[in-house]
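User: I'm putting together notes for a lab meeting next week and I want to include a structural view of one of the chains we've been expressing. I don't have a solved structure, so I'd like a prediction I can at least talk through. The sequence is below, exactly as it appears in our construct file.
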Amino acid sequence: MAERNSALVADRRTRDEWDRGNPTANRDQTHFRNQVLPLIAATPLSDIVRVTGLSVSAASRVRSGALTPHARHWAPIESLVRGVVTGR
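Assistant: Thanks for the context. Below is the predicted structure for the 88-residue chain, given as structure tokens.
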């Protein structure tokens, strides 16, 4: 339980630091949902985990559309899926 709590605290700290460092970042979920989510279905969970650091469970929920990840993950996921789709 303490290990899980430590992980949650560390994630919150990382999120807060990213938010402070990226005050003008686009946080509109429309682009992620309309442009990225349709492309992510063919992406292996291990690749999503690798580029985001999310757990396999969270990556699975992202891929299914049940979870919208924090905005700091959007660019790495988009780069990943666009590379997968275009074969780069």
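A couple of points you could mention at the meeting. The chain is about 70% helix and 0% strand. The mean pLDDT is 87.

User: Perfect, that's what I needed.
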